[in-house]
Amino acid sequence: MEIPFSHILLFFVVLVSSHDPKSNLFCSADPTDGFTEVPLTDANIELQRPYNIPLEERYSFVDGVRKLWVYADDKPHDPNSYTQPRTEVRIKGLDYSSGVWQFEGYGFVPNGTSGATIAQIHGAAHGATTLILRIYDGDMRYYSGNLIATGLYDRWFRLNIIHDVDGGEVTVFLNGNQVFQVADKGRGDLYFKCGVYAAPSNISYYMESRWRNIKIYKK
Fold first, then answer.
1. Mind listing the pLDDT tens digit for each residue in 126-135?
2. What is the pLDDT of residues 158-181, one digit of tens each?
3. Residues 75, 48 contacting (CB under 8 angstroms)
4. For this UniProt entry, which residues form the secretion signal (predicted)?
5. Closest Cα to residue 109, out of 182, 195, 48, 184?
6. Among 118, 132, 45, 39, which Cα is nearest to 86's?
7. Residue 50: is it exposed, middle or buried by C-beta count within 10 angstroms (0-12/13-18/19+)?
8. What's this model's pTM, rounded to 2 decimal places?
């Protein structure tokens, strides 16, 4: 009697799973595979916050966790700027305009934060930014458009952003899984940022994100 292929496939899946409960036939390679980590020092961490507020009133760094928060009526980071309020980590000294670069960090967004950019690639040939990852009601969106992920409130997540400048492509991973890919916006003076940066509209009064294990990689 001929055994249907679907039965053979099911048997194989069960056999592999029973042999190794941690196995996942459909898992992808780690996003950092093939990359080299670029060492970060304190000199690479520039902190931007409302210009009239002491840093310790918008930022803390305790037990390896960077906590960044801002209010909707805060001033911008520079008295000559007309941008929205922010408290952000700007990766300094590792600006790039070619090659393949990657940001990695473990992020946390508390319930209630909404309309806040939590990670971005600043710089582009056209416009101010190449990538904006923004939280609205616990969901992550590309700017205020494409839905990338849901249910991110009150839990740590691993975020990896790969920018292939020569290939003109940006890829986003959450917890090791690819969740979004988009064409970039051309070459420019490019660098990574994370923290909280208020959107132009539809924002909560209080915005916060936390980050740990921030790393930069390149090929």
1. 899 999 999 9
2. 999 999 999 999 999 999 999 999
3. no
4. 1-18
5. 195
6. 118
7. buried
8. 0.87
